[in-house]
Design goal:
The protein is α+β, with helices and mostly antiparallel strands. The chain has one domain: Muramoyl-pentapeptide Carboxypeptidase, domain 2 (2-Layer Sandwich). Helix content is about 35%, strand content about 15%. The protein has a 4-stranded antiparallel β-sheet, with helices on one face. Helix 1 crosses helix 3. The longest helix has 19 residues. It is globular.
Length: about 110
């Protein structure tokens, strides 16, 4: 595996994310988090938010009407992972968008 460059990965993620957001709208509620904030909100200790490689989106209105399948379909065309968090217990409804599948970032950063 080639050397992992976090700044390039962040740049590429944000280009792809903004492309997606231009097509699906939504309000960004969260992107980069500190370790303390991540702990406070109950985030995964290996969250891509900690590295600026994930953002959360919400839309006005009933979460059941949000364009989640469209976000997932369009995100996949740009290599983004979209996780529907509208019904996650203990969290406010949101759609999580990240750059890499779970586990990839840890492997890439240690090689």
């Amino acid at each position: 595996m080639a050397h992992f460059n976090l700044l390039e990965a962040q740049d590429e993620f944000h280009r792809r994310f903004q492309w997606l957001r231009a097509r699906v709208g939504g309000t960004i509620t969260n992107c980069t988090r500190s370790t303390e904030t991540n702990l406070r909100v109950g985030g995964n200790p290996r969250s891509q938010h900690l590295y600026g490689l994930a953002c959360d989106l919400v839309w006005f209105g009933n979460p059941r009407t949000w364009p989640v399948e469209r976000v997932r379909r369009l995100g996949a065309t740009r290599g983004l992972v979209v996780i529907d968090e509208r019904n996650r217990r203990g969290y406010r409804p949101h759609v999580h968008v990240q750059r890499y599948v779970a586990g990839y970032l840890e492997r890439a950063m240690t090689t």
